[in-house]
Amino acid sequence: MMFPHLRRGPVRLTPHQAHQQTSDGQTVLLDVRETPEWKAGHALGALHLPLSRLITGASLSASTQGKPVVTICRSGHRSQQAAKLLAGRGVEATDVTGGMTAWARQGLPVTGEGGSSGAIA
Predict the structure, then answer these.
(1) Least CB-packed of 13, 38, 67, 83 within 10 Å?
(2) Domain CATH code at residue 91
(3) Residue span of the structural domain in which 77 resides
(4) DSSP letter string over 51-62?
(5) Nearest to residue 92, comparing CAs of 30, 13, 10?
(6) What confidence tens digit (pLDDT) does each residue in 95-115 have?
(7) Contact 70/18 with Cβ under 8 angstroms?
(8) Active-site residue among 28, 29, 72, 73?
(9) For strand 69-72 and strand 28-31, is the pairing parallel, antiparallel, or unpaired?
């Protein structure tokens, strides 16, 4: 690379790109919002692990081992932090620009607790 000091890390994904990459189960969509936000509404098929728990050393579930991870939060800030943290642990990770707010705005599926239609809190 000609300017290695300018490298910014993995390319962030749009909600549609993230949905495409995670819909087959080969890539994990990880929602890093706090539990009340998750319960209000989350992407169908996403796993949940709050950033606050990741920061304190919580690890990903066994089902995610060896798979690329796409992190998502409400607006994109926490997911960017989570992706950097996971990358530092050797996980192939990127995040979604605009977070769940953009995900829902683009008409992608959102589910609430117990399978009801969800809302972004």
Answers:
(1) 67
(2) 3.40.250.10
(3) 9-58+70-108
(4) HHHHHTT----G
(5) 10
(6) 999 999 999 999 999 998 777
(7) yes
(8) 73
(9) parallel
